[in-house]
Design brief:
Order of helices and strands: HHHHHHHHHHHHHHHHHH
Shape: globular
Number of strands: 0
Mean pLDDT: 91
Number of domains: 2
Helix content: 55-70%
Distance between the termini: 16 Å
Radius of gyration: 23 Å
Length: 483
């Protein structure tokens, strides 16, 4: 059950009516319904893995309480480590077991040593990376005395299983979501209208932009041997737009659905393609993951290596991005992807410009030449690196790069000519233009039309809705569902 499906529309319609008309008088009743709805939402994919999520929730619920009650520092640490080992262990088993086993065997085969290995036929539980990170941050924040544990198990279980952001984020933190769960939600028309706009924009980005771009990128990455290098470079750029439209579209819909239920969710994207360096890009891309990794991985590592000066920061950044890469999946392509992004920070650290803020000149229609140049170079760097992210394996990625470095790089790009190809290019450009015009908003169309009369705004929203029905590309699975 995904956001752009009829089944979700029917599910959420029933849920919404029950939530605001039947269970509206009590936070407890709202949370019971939210918990039941979240588990029903998850069970629609595979009911068996509900027990894994429930078991993880139960363990972390009691660990949070006993960490606070314990006055012995060693016991507190032991309880924290139990929770972290359970979370990381679950990820390793379901997500990385086969990867580590095969990589270990491949390392020995390099020296002509053959090992007999046994892999497991495992199904990756949906959303395990996201709800595991929620649970771990909850325990870490309690241990650091930043939050107090909740003693209401319904609240905690609802926090872990919160269905709007359960399967692909954003990674909501306990300090944001739990206080909202502990009080009764009252229907707010303005918040709900804002949520509907964000859902509309997210749906447009997913089914019109991302799904049409996918038609182009699938052609390019599946047939790269027979295309000119210029098509491969353009295909990588279009894939970057597809990835952004797909993932930020999901995040917009998740945040919008949460707003319809009276929640303010975690912002996950802040117009990343307008970044002027790679550090700014990661401050704007998948922000909930970036902030999670910064607080719980990069900052502790930077303290460990602080005596090494700038090189200590470099080591911390590289380790941080290796983990970010591996978080995305059990494939050497993701490890390499993370390592390269970590390497891109090295010049910024050495020059001392890692914290330099972007100057987007919010009130100007066009960026300065310097800002535009920096945005273009950052986008190209991200797009070229995304070839590894998209590739099936490292051999595929290296062959793709090999075909780029040829004289055909300066030829006219060639694609299979069809309406979907043209639509993908056109809608990608339109989306980037709208995002630029709305770059000082929470999301692109949040307040872009605020100065226009209500009939004009409604006409634009109806136009976007019609474009969704008329130009929706061939349905593609959300990319980040696999993570």
């Amino acid at each position: 059950m995904i956001f752009n499906s009829i089944s979700f529309f029917l599910f959420f319609t029933v849920f919404f009516l029950l939530y605001w008309f039947v269970f509206k008088n009590s936070a407890k009743l709202q949370n019971v319904l939210l918990l039941a709805g979240s588990y029903a939402f998850y069970a629609f994919w595979d009911w068996r893995f509900m027990f894994l999520m429930a078991g993880s929730s139960l363990l972390n619920y009691y660990l949070g309480i006993y960490i606070t009650k314990s006055k012995n520092e060693k016991r507190r640490k032991l309880l924290l480590y139990i929770g972290l080992i359970q979370g990381i262990g679950g990820l390793i088993f379901f997500k990385y077991y086969n990867f580590f086993i095969t990589s270990f065997a491949d390392a020995f085969s390099f020296f002509n040593i053959s090992l007999q290995t046994h892999t497991l036929q495992l199904i990756l539980p949906l959303g395990i990376s996201f709800y595991t990170f929620r649970a771990m941050s909850y325990l870490l924040d309690i241990n650091n005395e930043e939050i107090a544990p909740t003693t209401d198990w319904v609240v905690f279980f609802s926090y872990i299983a919160f269905f709007p952001s359960l399967v692909s984020g954003p990674i909501d933190r306990a300090k944001l979501l739990i206080p909202q769960l502990e009080k009764k939600r009252i229907f707010n028309y303005d918040l709900a209208a804002n949520g509907m706009r964000q859902i509309l924009w997210g749906l447009f980005k997913k089914v019109v932009v991302a799904d049409n771009c996918a038609i182009i990128t699938n052609q390019v990455f599946n047939d790269y041997q027979h295309l000119p290098a210029s098509s491969l470079v353009l295909g990588a750029c279009i894939y970057s737009v597809q990835l952004y439209a797909d993932f930020s579209g999901y995040s917009d819909m998740a945040i919008g659905v949460a707003r319809l239920l009276g929640f303010s969710g975690t912002k996950n994207f802040n117009f990343p393609f307008f970044s002027q360096n790679i550090a700014s890009f990661w401050q704007r891309w998948h922000m909930s993951l970036t902030s999670w990794m910064t607080e719980y991985v990069y900052t502790p590592l930077s303290f460990i290596f602080r005596k090494r000066g700038k090189w200590g920061l470099i080591i911390a950044i590289l380790l941080n991005f290796l983990i970010i890469g591996l978080w995305h999946g059990a494939n050497w392509t993701f490890v390499c992807f993370g390592f390269l992004h970590g390497c891109y920070f090295i010049p910024l650290i050495l020059r001392g410009t890692i914290n330099k803020k972007d100057n987007l000149e919010q009130n100007k229609l066009l960026p300065s030449f310097t800002a535009f140049r920096n945005m273009l170079l950052t986008f190209l760097l991200v797009a070229i690196t995304n070839i590894i992210f998209r590739a099936d394996n490292m051999s595929h990625a290296l062959q793709y790069y090999k075909h780029i470095f040829s004289t055909s790089l300066f030829s006219v790009p060639v694609f299979k000519s069809n309406m979907s190809t043209s639509a993908g290019l056109v809608f990608a450009c339109i989306t980037l233009l709208i995002e630029w015009l709305g770059r000082n908003q929470d999301y692109a169309i949040a307040g872009l039309l605020s100065k226009f009369p209500r009939p004009v705004r409604l006409a634009v929203y109806y136009t976007i809705a019609m474009m969704i029905f008329l130009f929706a590309g061939k349905e593609q699975q959300f990319i980040y569902l696999q993570f």
